[in-house]
User: Fold this.
Amino acid sequence: MAKKQQPAGTPAIVALTAAGAEFTVHAYEHDPAHPSYGEEAAQAMGVSPDRVFKTLIAEVDGALVVAVVPVSGSLDLKALAAAVSGKRAAMADPALAERTTGYVRGGISPLGQRKRLRTVLDASASAHPTICVSAGRRGLEVELPPATLASLTSATTSPIARP
Assistant:
């Protein structure tokens, strides 16, 4: 995997570059009419949907938490709450998620967020040598080893997705 340098990157790409991480950037033409950002990314890149991970923002006991799960599945809110020793989890208000992370819906990256949030990566990520996550903009993904993502986000790895 080659390290891609971009002069004016998103905060996610800047964070990866600053960390000296190995990653590959994949750009594609985003179609605003597509019903799923994640499935669109997987199709555009020709990558299996279980290797493309979506970044979701949830509230667990009143605190925002980042959940990174495969686009082929959905987030199990009870499992997310348990992963962070919480009682109750619900999806965060999209406007709050955008303000807190500094990214727009459909382009929220687990990397380079405006405010660093507790992050949980679904355990299925470890089954792949590399996974793809949003690079911080619709139509832009970054591919990297799951261990690199977990390290850079200080993520807990736990089974938080359901098929």
Summary: Strands lie at 24-27, 53-60, 63-70, 74-75, 89-91, 118-122, 131-137, 140-144, 156-158, 161-162. The longest strand covers residues 53-60. Confidence is low (pLDDT under 50) at residues 2-7.
